[in-house]
Amino acid sequence: MKSDISDESKLTKYPVLDEIEVPDNILENWQVTADLLASVANVPAALIMRVHASDVEVFVASRGIENLYPRGEKTPLDTGLYCETVMNTQHKLLVPNALEDPAWDHNPDMKLGMISYCGLPLTWPSGELFGTLCILDKQKNVFANKTQPLMERLRDSIQLSLASLYETSLARMQRDEAEREKQVSETQLRAFYELDLVGLAITSPNKGWIRTNDCLCKMLGYSEEELRTMTWTQLTHPDDLPADTEQFDQLLAGKIEGYSLEKRFISRNGEIVYTQLVVRCVRRNNTEVDYVVSMVEDISDRKQIEAELAGYRNHLEELVEARTRELEEANNKLRELDRLKSMFIASMSHELRTPLNSIIGFTGMTLQGLSGDLNDEQRDNLSRVYKAGQHLLSLITDVIDIAKIEAGRIAMTVESFSLAALVEDAVNTMKPQLTGKGLSCVLDIPAEIQMNTDRKRLLQCLLNLLSNAVKFTEAGQVKLIVREKNGIVTLAVSDTGIGIAAEDMPRLFEAFERLDTHLRLKAGGTGLGLYLTKKLASQVLKGDVSVESQLGEGSTFTLSIPKEIPALHNGASN
Amino acid sequence: MRTALVIEDNEDNMVLICRLLDKANYHALQAFTGKQGVDMARKEKPDFILLDIQLPDIDGTEVLRQIRTEESIATIPVIAMTSYAMAGDRERLLAAGCNGYIEKPIDPMRVIAQIQGMLGGVAT
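ok -> C-alpha cells follow
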C-alpha cells in the first residue's frame, strides 16, 4: 500500500493517506480536543485540518457561533491558507498579526477576519502528511502563556491516535489484500477445476474418491456424491487394474512421485471409457501420502480413430496380399508360358529340321547326280526344291536364334581362334554366290589377330553381312576391311550396291523389315538377318553393328566387337 | 573298302547317310539304337563310326563313353552328328573323346568331304 501512496504522491502536492478513515470514537475525542483548545486559548476557532490530494478539509472544528469554519468545508490547495505554510514547512507557524505582513494579503483566512494564527503539522507515523492542528483569532494574538504548550501536547495526543489508527489500518489493509489474493487464486483454481475439458480428481491413499470435477463425473456417469462412496478400482477395467495399482503402490511406498498411463474405466452404463491418466501425490511432511491428484483425459475419440486406422491398415494389408497373390499367379503363368516357349523352341529346332534334313539331303544327293543322270528340267526342279529347303532352314534357324536371344537363353561359347581363318571360312562359304554374280571380293586384313570370343556367332554375323552385300549388289565388288584398335576389332563390309535411303535407316535393324526395292523378290532372305546380327553383336559378342550408306552409292556395315570376352561370359549368357 | 558304322534312329537320315557313303565307296553298317550300335561296333570293328547323339534308348554321349572304355574298340574314330539346337554339344562331345562333329542337317554336298577331313588326322 505504501508504494501506491508514493505513486500517488507524484501526482499530488503532498504525500497523503486518504484511504485511512478516522473512526467515530477518535473523531469524538478530537472534537473534544478542539473544543477544549478553543476554550482554553479563548479563540473563535480551533481546527484539525486534513489534507487530501487537491484540497484541504476542515476535518474537526471547535463548536461555537464565533467559529466561521464549518466542519467538512474544503478549500482547494494553493490558495494561501496559513495551514498550507505549515504543511509546506512541516513546522509550527505562529502569525501574531497578519496585517503586518503583506504576504498574507490574499489569505482566505484573512477574508474571514482571522489575522492571527498558530498551527502545528500532523503526520502519519509513516511520514505522510495528515494535516494541521491550529487556532485562529480575529485580533492580534501571540498565543502566549500555556496555549502553545497545550497545543503541542494535544498535537502529540492526536499523533498517537494517528499512529494507532495507522497500525490498525495497515494491518487491516494487508489482511484485505491477502484475502483478495486468496480469492483470486481460488477463483482461478476453481475455474481450472471446473473446466469441462479434463477430468480432475483428488483421491485418498485408500484409492477412494475424495473430490471429482464435473467433467470426470460426466465421463464416468456418477455424481460426485456417489463417487465419494466408491474406489477407483471398482470403476477400472479389470485388465488395466494391475498396471494402475502396481504404480499406485510404488507411489505409496515413496518410490515414485507420480505416473501416467493409458487405462480404461467402465462407466455407469457399462461403456468402456479410454483415458489418459496422469497421477501425482501430495505428501504430508514429505513422507506419507496425504492425498493423490489425478488428471483423467477422455481419449475415446483418439482410440476410435486409432482403431479405424488399424482397420484401414489391415484392409490395406489384405489388399496388398490379394494383389501379391494375383501377381504371383500371373508370374507363375508367365513362367509357365516361358517354359512352354522354350519347349516350343526346342521342339521347333528338332521337329522342323528333321524333315528338312531329308528334303535338303535327298535333293542335294540327287542334284549331284549320285543317283543317276538328270535332264535339265529335272535338275532345275530339284534345284528349286533344294534352294527352298535351304531358305526354310535358314528361316527356322534365325527364328530359333531370335527366340533364344529374346528369352535370354542364347548360349555363348567362347573359344580362341584366328580371325584370318574365320574370314577365309566365311569368304569360302560366300564364294559360290560371289562368283555367281560376277562380283569381286577384296580383303584387307592386318597380320594375325587372335580372337577369344564366340566363333560360331561371329561367323554367323559376318556371313549375314557378306550375304546382304552380295544380295544387294549387281556389279562391282564386296570389300571386307578388318582393323584392330585398343582391343576392339572392326569388320567393315562394303558393297557397291543399291545403298539405303536415309529415311529407311531407322527401320533397318528391325525384324522382318525388308526395304522395298526392285531387288526385293530377287534378293530373297528371311528379313531377319540384320535384326539377328544386331542382337548377336550386342548380346553375345558384346559389341555393336552400325551402317553408313547413301542411296545408289553402296553401303558399309561395320561390326565392332571386343577381341576378347572375359571368361565369366563363357557358357550360357543367362 | 572301308567300313562305316552309322548309329542313327531316323530312317531318312540313315538312308541318306548310307547312300552318300555308298556312292563314296564306303561299306555302311546300320544301327538304329545305341545298344545295337555298341554291339555292332564290338562285333564288326568298323573303320569309323557316325554317331547320332539323340537316340531313343541310350544317349549318344553314353554310347561314346562305352566305346571309349572298351579296349577292343576304344581307338575307333567316332564322328558325332547332332542337331543345331544342342548348345555346347560340340565341346562336350569333343571332351568325351569323339574325333569330329557334324551339325545336322547334314549338307549332302559337303558331308563326305567333311568326314574325310576329320578322318584325315586319324590313322585308320
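The CA atoms of residues 284 and 290 of chain A lie 5 Å apart.
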